[in-house]
Amino acid sequence: MNILFVGDIFGSAGRHIVREHLPHVIETNSVDLLVINGENAAGGFGITPSLAEEIFDMGAHVITTGNHIWDKREIFEYMTVPADSHERGRRVLRPANYAVGTPGFGFYQGELPSGQQYAVMNLQGRVFMSSCDDPFRKADELLSKITAKVILLDIHAETTSEKVALGWYLDGRVTAVMGTHTHIPTADARVLHGGTAFITDVGMSGPYDSVIGVETELVLNRFLTGMPGKFEAAKGNPKMCAALIGCDGATGRAYSVQHLMLGE
Ligand SMILES: [Fe+2]
Ligand SMILES: [Fe+2]
């Protein structure tokens, strides 16, 4: 089976470029499972229920997120659904290693129309990020609850080392470990020895004439002066970044992974 994982959708430029390229990528690669990181869908900061609906309408089975998940308050209620629900709000994930009692869930297990079981997990790193529980031990805990063989993890983290370490830690236990958050794609997509597809960072789906999605002038001004200022999403040079994973649905082992960067 084929899994497509799309990196952080950033603002309207990101939404448009993904909408433009997704149908063709899905069709030409016979994509069975589509997972999209949507943490920056709302002007670069968070995601709203209507934008989540828009991403689900594009065909996403699950939306993962990260540190920007709480930027838009409207999403709290949308994600507040029973654990055994399969409605859309249940399929917007936040990192599983957030504090107990926060809205939403950090993993989802579902079934495709073919009967294929799958699970998606979302974790956040701890190095140079706001505090959260240990993503390594949390991954173990989630895996003890998941019965599906096909399992994709979105590890939302800042440092390459933490993501690479988690890849090796989970090698052979999950189908794919996909890094997000830095918004810069890395050139290391590979299948690890145990059959886990890995990439340190898929890269954002957004405007690349920017500083990780934000208008260059605004970020430069922040670096040059240290003065506060509102950040706004850039528009120029949009690219969709994604990883295409081939795996055996019966065992969950990946046999191929390819990074895609598609633009205008
Ligand atoms: Fe992001
Ligand atoms: Fe992030």
Structure at a glance:
The chain is an alpha/beta fold and 264 residues long.
Blueprint (SSEs and pairs):
Layout: E1 2-6, H1 11-28, E2 33-37, H2 49-57, E3 62-64, H3 74-78, E4 107-111, E5 117-124, H4 135-145, E6 150-156, H5 160-170, E7 176-180, E8 190-191, E9 197-199, E10 206-207, H6 216-225, E11 238-247, E12 254-263
Main beta sheet: strand number and arrangement?
6 strands, mixed
Q: For the record, what CATH class applies?
A: Alpha Beta
Poorly predicted sequence stretches spanning 5 or more consecutive residues: none
Structural class label: alpha/beta
Strand content: 15-25%
Domain tally: 1
Task: Name the CATH superfamily classification.
Answer: Metallo-dependent phosphatases
CATH architecture: 4-Layer Sandwich
Shape: globular
What is the subunit organization of this protein? single chain
Ends: how far apart? Answer: 28 Å
How many helical elements? 6
Q: Mind telling me the C-alpha Rg?
A: 17 Å
The overall strand count is: 12
Ligands, ions, cofactors:
fe (ii) ion
The mean pLDDT is 98
Order of helices and strands: EHEHEHEEHEHEEEEHEE
Amount of helix: 10-25%
Task: Write the CATH fold name.
Answer: Purple Acid Phosphatase, chain A, domain 2
Task: Explain this structure.
48% of the residues are buried. The protein has a single domain, classed as Purple Acid Phosphatase, chain A, domain 2, CATH 3.60.21.10. By secondary structure, the protein is an alpha/beta fold. The chain starts with a strand and ends with a strand. The model has no long low-confidence stretch (mean pLDDT 98). The strands form two sheets. Strands 1, 2, 3, 10, 11 and 12 form a six-stranded mixed β-sheet that branches. A six-stranded mixed β-sheet has the order 4-5-6-7-9-8, covered by helices on one side. Helix 2 (49-57) links the parallel strand 2 (33-37) and strand 3 (62-64). The protein has helices at residues 11-28, 49-57, 74-78, 135-145, 160-170, 216-225, and strands at 2-6, 33-37, 62-64, 107-111, 117-124, 150-156, 176-180, 190-191, 197-199, 206-207, 238-247, 254-263. It contains six helices and twelve strands. The chain is globular, with a radius of gyration of 17 Å. One fe (ii) ion binds at residues 39, 66-68, 156, 181.
